[in-house]
Structures are given as C-alpha cells and as structure tokens.
Amino acid sequence: MFDDLDTDRRPLVLVWEVTQACELACRHCRADAKPARHPDELTTAEGKRLLREAAEFGDGQLVVLSGGDPLAREDLLELVEYGAERGNRMTITPSGTRSLTPERVRGLADAGVRRMALSLDGATRESHDAFRGEASFADTLTAAEAARDAGLPLQINTTVCAETVEELPTIRDRVRDLGAVLWSVFFLVPVGRGRVLDPVSPERAEAVMEWLHEVDAAEPFGVKTTEAPFYRRVGLQGDRTGSARRGGITAGRGFAFVSHVGEVYPSGFLPESAGNVREESVVDVYRDADRFEALRDPDRLTGKCGACEFRNVCGGSRSRAYAHTGDPLASDPLCPYVPEGYDGPLPGSVERSGRA
C-alpha cells in the first residue's frame, strides 16, 4: 500500500482551468483571460473523463476548478456534481463578478462544492478595483457573505507585489471579518499580465513571511503561501513547530495543473507541458513524466536552492525560477537566504551577505 499523501503517487492539489474566459481584466492575470471562451476547451465529456481519472489518485482527491472564471461554463454544476459523485473534493475559484449571485453560490454548494476561494487584492473598493481592472469589490463581498449563509467554507486569495504589500494588514482584517477559513497569500510570479507588475524585494518578502506566521498564530483562520514555499523555512527557523506540517508542495511535487485545452503543467505559473489529458491519463502524466519526476527530486535543484538544508520542506518556487531563468530547477530569486558555506552564484538581485 502506498502512503495516501505520497506526492510521488498523487498531487495534494489538482487544478483544472476549466476556461480562460472571464469578464475581468486583472492586472496580474496568469491566463491573460479574455471575455470569450476558447473553442478548443475540454468538452463536458472530456472533463468528466478527467474527473474520473482524478479519482484514481485516491479517495478525496482535491480538485480545484479555476479559470478565467469557471462560471463562464454552462456545464459547471454538472461537472461539480459528477466530480463529487466520484469521491473528489471539489472546490472552486470563481471571479468576483455580478454573475456570482447568492443564488449561484447556493447552487454550487448544493452541487457538491466543498470550498470557494475568492480574490481580495485591496482593502478598499478603490484599491481592489484598480488592481482587478473592473468594479468587483462589492460583488466579491456579496459572494463572500453568500458563502457564509450557504455554509460554504471560504478561502481568500491575495496577491503580494509592490502595489499591494502595504495593504496586507488591512486585508487581514477583512479576511477575519468575512469569516474565511484560510488566507492564501500569493507572491507574484511574472507570467501573463503579471509581467508588468513590480514584485517585492527578497528582504521585504522575508519580513512579510515572518509577519504571516504571526498572523497564523493569532487569527482564527489558517494562512498559507502560494509560490513562496520558503514561508516554511522562515517558520522552522523561528521555531514554529507547525511550519513543516504543510511542507513539500511545490510545482510538480504535490501539485498539478490541467489547462483549458488539456495540457498538464506542474503549475499554471510553470507552463511547460508534460502531456495532454486528451492523449493520456493525468495519473500517468503526474506519476511518470520526466518533467514531474525531476521536480519531485530536491537533489536535482541547482544553485543555492540545491545546497540549502531546507530543500526538502521548501524547495523554492520552481515557477519563479523558470520565469526568471527558463530553468525550473534553478534557485528561487525571491528567497534571500544563503546556506552556510555556499559560495556559488546567486540568482537575480539577491546580495550574498551570509545567513538571512
């Protein structure tokens, strides 16, 4: 018998980008989403086959339906119901638009959605709507209240970049007031429209990580980071014993992404295909593709990530390494930590000054 949480055998998170269509034009959008649906999206039948295959990973496979905006698909509820019936834990990340009415939120809950994630990238209407490109702040809050009324656990996703970092404490207060169960804090990876945004510096990222651990300890909701696995390293160095609990999930290692046209990527932020679900099972691609196998082996990392004693619980953002260097096994340029005794090359603008 295999360990049910063995990331060589199954992803802890499987994301399916059901469409790239979306009414919004968010400034950081990985998908560079557009209003119209792509004509070659996976069909309903192909989507159901993917959900059947996802269930083969094991009981309770977490499947995230993302976009674009999943609500752009007319068969969304049918797909949710089908996936839930196969034993998958179905979750969804809809866009905060007028189409996400309380009635639709209740319909998603009734169909079998186990958690809904909404994006909040500003603490006020002005800052959030400026970042998202459309007037979505009020619609997002309405949907969050609808989720609470429907008994649907709520996750809030927030992008961290130079434009948003100062608002994090006030966004934290919003997350608490909305009754969210989890705050997922995404550190910008320069792909899609996000290429025009400025990231925070490595030193500022480190400080934010330390603050997020304080938030995690003090608030009723959990905190996790996306594309910033050195959050776990910061926690371990601060003697926070729970920091390794969520360890080991990075692109291709505990995580897989299926695009709207069926390409299987290690992450939506690392768009290098290892196969297509129209041609082979997502299970086989995840378990056997060379690209995924390489990303699951921390001893294949190079630079200071390869030399780091925390590589098994962190491993760095493979997506950010790829975005900056074209090599997904290179060092993560956002992490300022330098392993003791390491004297090799450093990524990006990070200055080597001993241990962080």
Describe this structure in words.
By secondary structure, this protein is of the alpha/beta class. It has a domain at 13-200 and 250-296: Alpha-Beta Barrel (TIM Barrel). The protein is built from twelve helices and nine strands. The chain has helices spanning 44-55, 76-85, 102-111, 125-132, 137-149, 168-177, 202-218, 230-237, 282-288, 290-295, 303-307, 318-325; strands at residues 13-17, 62-66, 89-92, 113-119, 154-160, 182-187, 222-226, 255-258, 264-265. The chain has a nine-stranded mixed β-sheet, with helices on one face. A hairpin with a 5-residue loop joins strand 8 (255-258) and strand 9 (264-265). The protein is globular, with a radius of gyration of 19 Å. It starts with 12 loop residues before the first strand and ends in a 31-residue tail after the last helix. The relative contact order is 0.12. The model is unreliable at 349-356 (pLDDT under 50). Its cofactor is [4Fe-4S] cluster. InterPro entries: Aldolase_TIM (IPR013785), Elp3/MiaA/NifB-like_rSAM (IPR006638), PqqE-like (IPR017200), Radical_SAM_PqqE_MftC-like (IPR050377), rSAM (IPR007197), rSAM_sf (IPR058240). One of its GO terms (molecular function) is metal ion binding. Keywords: 4Fe-4S, Iron, Iron-sulfur, Metal-binding, S-adenosyl-L-methionine. It holds the Pfam family Radical_SAM.
